[in-house]
Amino acid sequence: MKTFILAAATTVALALAAPASAQDKKTTLNLDTAKKIAAGCVAKAKAEGWRVNIAILDDGGNLKYFERMDGAFRGSIQIAQLKANTSTMFPFPTKAVGEIAKSVPGIAHVPGVATFEGGLPIKTAAGEAIGAIGVSGVTAEQDGMCAQAGLDAAAADLK
What we know:
Radius of gyration: 20 Å
Largest sheet: 4 strands, antiparallel
Structural class: alpha+beta
Strand order of the largest sheet: 2-1-4-3
Number of strands: 4
Order of helices and strands: HHEEHHEEH
Number of helices: 5
């Protein structure tokens, strides 16, 4: 009987510990990295004379960090967030979503999906998606360049 109780207690302990260890292994986007990404984007925008809004979301689509440069269009706030959200729902660039929409036109009409450049997933060096950045305020191509500059600025943190 003692052996049975010991075995049962061990089984319960292992069952409770397994989810905790799985959570410990998940990489998350921290605030310092989000700020570093935004700073890289701001540096690119300033160098080019652009004024943009930058939204950084975690992998659950929750706003982690937002920055609105002086003079950036107020209407671009929501667009930056939509671009980032799209790249958390589908872990690839919003430009790729736009390409997919050409052959699957209905995707462009899904609420909350942006189908133009400026949203990029934030991935670790191992390819794990941990969030996304969305940039809006200039042309779609320039928004994409700014988002990429942000990711490049934090590359060391994403290893």
